[in-house]
Write a structure and sequence with these properties.
One of its GO terms (molecular function) is carbohydrate:proton symporter activity. The chain starts with a helix and ends in a 15-residue tail after the last helix. By secondary structure, it is mostly helical.
Length: 585
Amino acid sequence: MQDQRHRLPSDNLFQAAYIPLISVDLLTDHVLPEENQHFLTSLQSNTMGSDPKSEAKPKASLRELRPGSRKQSSKQDAPSTTGSMLRLSLWVSFAAWIANFDNGYSGTVLIMPSYKRTFGSCEQVIDPETYANIEHCTLTPLQESLISLNYLFIALGGGLAGLTGQYCGRRGSIQVGCMLAIIGAAGMLGTSGSFLYYMVCRCISAVGIGHLLASGVTYGSECIVPSKRGLSLGLYNVGLAMGNVASSAVCAGSARLEAANNWQWKTPILCQIPLGLILGAGILMLPESPRWFMGHGREEEARQSFGVLYCQDPHSSVVSAQIEDIRSHLASERAGKKTVSVFDIYRKKHIRRTMTSALVMIGMAITGIQFVVPYTALFLKGVGMSDPYLINVIIGLCVLAGSFLGPFIVEYGGRRPATLSGYAIMAMCMLILSSVNTIVGSYTSARIAMIVVLCMWAFVFGATIAPSAGLTSVEMHSVSLRTFGQANTTVLYGIFSFGATFWTPYMLSPNHGDMGASVGYFYAGVTVVVTILVFLLVPETAQLTLEQIDEVFNSGIMAWRTSVSKNKTAILPRKGDFGDESTAV
C-alpha cells in the first residue's frame, strides 16, 4: 500500500476525489502539495459528504509545519495588487479596443456615398422627386462580402501570433500587431480608386489585428491573479465594446461630410495610426509574462516579473511558491519531451481542451454578432430606417452598457451560467425580431420593435457572451501550450467570422436572399445548437487557478458537473496570500 501511495500521479487528483474507496488521509500524507490536498478534500466532500470523524481530527501537513509557510503570511502585511492588475488590464483592454474599432467601421462605410463613389459603379439616373439627373453609385454584393475577407487574415494573424508570442514574448507579439495595423491603415489612406489595393492593405492590417486578439488576452490571463482574472479580463470586453461604439460614433460624424469628400470613409481608418503607436509604445511599461519566462527557462526574470505584478520581493515565499507550482506543471507536461510543438495541441492529451476553446469562440462568431456589428447599418437601411448611423451608435452603446456588468457576472455568477443564459436570451431576441416583422409587417411600430429587440440583444451579448467567451477560451489551454492553443482558436474564430460576414450581405440583398428581418430565424436556430454544445462540453473555470484547470481536464469530469460553488471551496487555502487575492496566476 505504501508503494501505491507514492506512485499516485498528480494528474489524477480529480479522479481520486470522486472514488469513495480512496482515503483522503492516504492521499494527503506526504504526497500532495498543500493546496492540492485541500482541493482534493473539498471535491470529495462535495461529492460524498463530509466525514465528522475526519473533521474532528484534522491533520497538519508537512508544509504547514515549515517555517516561512504561506499559512503564516499575514493578510494585513501583504500588499494589494489591485493597482498593478488594473494597469495591466487597461492596456490589454486597449488592444481589444483597437481590434473592434477596425471591425466596427468596416461594414458601416459600405453605405457612405463617398465610399460607393470611390470603389463602386456609378450611373446617371433621374431623381424621382426632383426629376433632375443625379449620379447613383452602388457596390456589388461581392464587394460588400469581400470586406469579410479580412477575417481570414485575422485568422492568419492569430496563427502567426503563436510563433511571435512563443519566440518574441507576449509583449513582442502585441507590438508586431500594432506595427502591421499601422502599415495597413497608412496604405488604405492612399488607395483611392483601387478596390484591389484597398483590400490588400486592409488584409495587412487584419494580420495585425489577429496578433492583438490572440496575444492580448493570452498576456492578460497569464499575468492576472485568479481571484481578479474574471473582473480584470472582463475589462477586455469593455474595450471591445468601446471600440465598437467609438467606430460607430466616428462614422456617424464623418458621414455628415459632403458626399464627394473621401474623408467620409478615410477618417475612421486614420484613427488606427495613433492608436497603434500608443499601444505599441505603452506596452513596454508592463513586465513580460512570467509564464513565458518560465517556459524558456528564465526563472530569475520570471521572479522579477512576478515581483512587479504582485508588488512582492522577487525572492519572497509567495513568489517562490508560484515559481515552484509553474515549474512542476511544466515538468509534468514535458515529461519525456525536450521541446513543445504546435502539433501537441492536437494530440490525445490536449485535443479536448483545444476543441473546447475553439467552440467557445466559434459560437460567439456565428450566433449573430457578425450580423449586428458590421452590417446593422446596412440592415436598418434596407428595412427603411431613416438614420441608420445614429441607430448603429445606440446599439453599440447597448453593448457597452452590458459590458460594464459583464466582469461581475462572469466572476461571481460563473462562466457557464453567463454563457448559457446569454445564448438563451439572444435566441429569443432573434426569434422575436423575425416574428414581429412576419406578423406586423413593415409598419413604423414593427421598426421600433426591431430596434428595441436589437438593443436588448446587444445588451445581453455585452453582459454575458462577450466577457465569458474571451476569458473562457484562453483558460482552456495548458501551461506550455497556451500560446499555440489560443493561436489555433483565433484562426478558427477568424475563419468562421469570415463565413458569417460573407454570407450576410447575400442573405440581406434584395437580388439574392432577400431575407430582411427574417434573418433572425436563422440566427435563433444557430444559437440554440451552440447553447446545447456549450452545456455539454464547456466546464466552469471561475475562481480556479490555471493549474487547477489543468486538473479539471486531466480528471475527466463532465462539464455539466462543474460549478462555481465547488470551485470556490477548492481554492480556500489560496485566499489571503496577498491580502485581497490569491497567489497563483
